[in-house]
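Before the break, one more example. Copy the sequence into your notebook; we will annotate it together after we see the structure.
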Amino acid sequence: MIRKIKTIVLVFFALFAIPFTSGSFRGKFLDQNDLQEDRARFWFNFYSKNARKTFLQHLANGEDFRIHIESIFTSYGIPLELYYLGLIESGYKRMAISKARARGPWQFMADTGIKYGLRVDSEIDERVDVSKSTRAAGKYLLDLYDIFHSWALASAAYNAGESKVLGAIRKGETRDLRILCEKRFIPQETCDFVTKIWVAKELDLRRNEFGLPEFKRVNNSDQLFRSRSI
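Here is what the structure looks like once it is written out:
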């Protein structure tokens, strides 16, 4: 109960204490100027060189589901750049599981998955169902957008939790993600998470420039609707 009251207070401060300019609901994920340039350069170099093989595999994994995911996001009014959020979360490995027990392509914790309509019990885990978990992720992102009026901040909250990002906004008295990151109000891991999404998108769209091979897009429906029995 105390935690819930604290969150409500933080929402009040974040949404009403600091003016903001509303953008289009279908607006961009973020602008390059919103990024920490040094971190963007680091991740460009990391994914195109150091982790090139793994990054290419993750891109290939995502191609199996991309058309379906983008269709869902389009129907929800979510920027298609957020397709890459799933790529950074899991490498689009359906059965991915973290040390914290987050699972599936969108790395839902069990409680959050259930909150957004997924079945997670002793028999079925719909977090690994690409179609259902993508719809759940879309609903979650829309809720986060309703709080922050920013897809970049919504993505940060997807990683760190809305309370942490709301607290950072209150302390920093700004909704500028770059400033919040530079002043360390938001953990660097979360700032990097948002940066990675943008970098992954840029590398994918500029494959020829970075010597990355093209992939043939497919709609692999056989892989979309499998929910693992536990």
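Residues 54-223 form a domain with the Lysozyme fold (CATH 1.10.530.10). Confidence is low (pLDDT under 50) at residues 1-25. Try to locate both features in your own notes.
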